[in-house]
Amino acid sequence: MEHLIEFCLSDKQRKIIQLKMDGLTNQQIANNTGVAVRRVYRMLQAIKMRAAQAGIAPEADLDYRTPVGFNLKGTSTLINKATGETMLQWVKTDVNKEAQEELMREVIESLKEDLPRYKPVAHKATTVSNLATVYTLTDSHVGMKAWGQETGADWDLDIAERTLISTFQKMIDGSPDAETGVVAQLGDFIHQDSMAPVTPTSGHIVDADGRYSKVVQVGIRILRSVIQMALKKHKKVIVLMAEGNHDMSSSIWLREMFKAVYEKEPRVQVIDTPLPYYVYQHGKTMLAWHHGHLRKNDQLPILFATQFSDLWGKTKKRYVHTGHRHHAEEKEHSGMMVIQHSTLAARDAYAARGGWMSERKVNAITYHKEFGEVGRITVVPEMINGS
């Protein structure tokens, strides 16, 4: 099992492999390391899977290394019939998206143990218990590069950070002192989902600003800032890191990371379901979210009514928030209002060349437990630039 050590992602994983090499059982390893026995088993399987997907599996006579994130698609072998000797072997590889996501999950598990935890701050002394305000940030595309002469407005990491934090502060300042605040990051927050500046599903090249590691740093800093603002205003803060079509894998580590960072803050609840349809019950008001990349707006009411039938039956006012299409649209369906949000981000070159235009803005919508929507604040980038 020594070959597995190089595929470990942490010192703890390396220790588990070493103990396994020493002949310990999974239960003995669990007792020795303080890791649950099921977790030991999953870690061993994940390490073996990473090795096999890299072409290293001695028990199966495999010893052909492939790049990380790729798997063996197939092999072709030329054998000398007379001697049975392998003359040549061709190894075909392909991108393995499931393996990439599994690698990301294991990295998250390794890092969560050492992440600095959030230090609680005080909120406003008086808040209105019947109210919840939803602050929506969707399709922010942090890490996108837009050239104003081509797209109508510039967008890069510095502009994104300044604009998103400033507009969020405007929404906070203009909203009532609701007991609950929802930071609804509704997907496509990160413009690219890997080191390569391409979309995760279609592989289209995107205009990127800077290295992916820098994009991640800026994105985390923005989200930490807006959650901090919400905690200073609201008694309870709900955090949503929704899956988008640009950041399918990134949404996984964002959810897990923020759940770990705020695990000792009882006022923060991170919605951590991997299902890309999200709900929260506010009295008799149902709040729901979906980025919009998997289902069209008119399909969402029946989907949420079916998927979350218990919550649907307990509520009288129901709202689902979407993004993805970069322009505003609202329509009342039987039993549910569908609210499609605009984006603050500038157009990219693809949208500009396609002639797609929409007003850039964000909304903070306040909901009452009994009466549904009771207030709304709209902020546009010009309000920030002019302040």
Q: Which structural category fits the helices and strands?
A: alpha/beta
According to CATH, the fold-level topology of the largest domain is Purple Acid Phosphatase, chain A, domain 2
Q: How many structural domains in the coordinates?
A: 2
For the biggest sheet, the summary is: 6 strands, mixed
Number of strand elements: 15
Which regions have little confidence, pLDDT < 50, spanning 5+ residues?
Answer: none
The first-to-last residue Cα distance is: 62 Å
Describe what you observe in this structure.
The protein is an alpha/beta fold and 387 residues long. It folds into 2 domains: 2-66 and 97-109, no CATH class; 118-385, Metallo-dependent phosphatases (Purple Acid Phosphatase, chain A, domain 2). The protein has 12 helices and 15 strands. The strands form 4 sheets. A 6-stranded mixed sheet has the order 8-7-6-5-14-15. Strand 1 and strand 2 form a beta hairpin. Helix 2 crosses helix 3 and helix 3 (37-53) packs across helix 4. The mean pLDDT is 86.
